[in-house]
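Notes from the pairing session

We agreed to fold both candidates in a single pass and log them together. This is the raw record for the first candidate, unedited. Please don't reformat it; downstream parsing expects exactly this layout.

Candidate A
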Amino acid sequence: MVVEEPQTQHKNTAYHNSLEKALPTIQLYNHNFNGSEPPEISVIMPAFNEERAVGHLLDRTQKALLKITPNYEIIVVDDGSHDQTLDICREKHVTIIHNPYNWGKGYALREGFKQAHGDLIVTMDSDGDHHPEDIPLLLQPLRAGKIEAVFGSRFLHNGNFPVTTAVNTFGNRLFNFLIRNLTNRKFTDTQCGFRAFNRNCLSTLQLNSQGYDIETEMIVQLARQHTPYCEIPVRSPITYLRKSNINRLKDGFRILFSIFKARIRALAKT
């Protein structure tokens, strides 16, 4: 019989304690979903230091959803915010998943998907870049029954105003081109996070991304599965007037890497 040294036991205990602190916790505050009947719609909203926008955005989202159905849920994934984001969300009728550390948008969305109960699942940003009043437009093709995934596109809008910086527009078009060549499917805005899915469609994905590359990972997997999809125009304010959480160099590299990784996997299967 081997007896573990006290020092080793202490190290293992400290490791497990630190691991438990890093795991996400689920908190319910004035939650509108009582669990007796699954909600029709789940809205998942990752948030990192969005105290300026998240409160008003949640109010608008609730109003938009009530026009569709009273049976909905909003899941805010607070991804390690160190401002007042968490406190503001606690005052709203939402479910909160709190990550003690900033793991990234991909991780936050994946945690949100695990807790979503709705048959229709919407993803949107918490910084005000997406208009919750457009949620009915996203859901309309899904509710009609012929489409399984709907992608919002900022570049299909009829307006002739800029929706992002010239650098971001160039990067988006590059990613659109690469993904089109990889999947033989056309997308006009692969990096817009305003999307809607059928629950069964979403359950077929095997997502691993931690950061903003999750948008690309989702599109590539759905396209490879020949999932029926469509794009619809969505409104977006001029984002370059506000500070973004996106690191153009690091996140751009991750997105490119995810595209090339998918390409290598595709070649390996041929």
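Candidate B (folded immediately after A)
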Amino acid sequence: MITGIRLKEKVKPYAKRIQGISHPIRLSILYLLAYKDFPLHEIAENLDYSQNLVSHHISTLLTSGWVEKKKWKQYVYYHLKTRVLFDWYPLFTGTPLEKEVISKKLY
């Protein structure tokens, strides 16, 4: 078990990721992107928010590493980075929780 400054340094990148999804609109965007990639205007339509507001929240998701963008024809599509879902595992490496998950094959 680590404590003190080493623990603070270990959790710092995870805290940034959590801050990136700490708003209902951002969680709603991730939910939509779990189904398929969307351009900004379709995300805004599906959520019934303005494109400016959705753009602001997508920018936060991009910065915190949850979403990536790709250009296709005249649109920019946003894509959920599924790898980020597995990036949490190292945080719990060596803990009793990890051993429990492995023994029960809950992953």
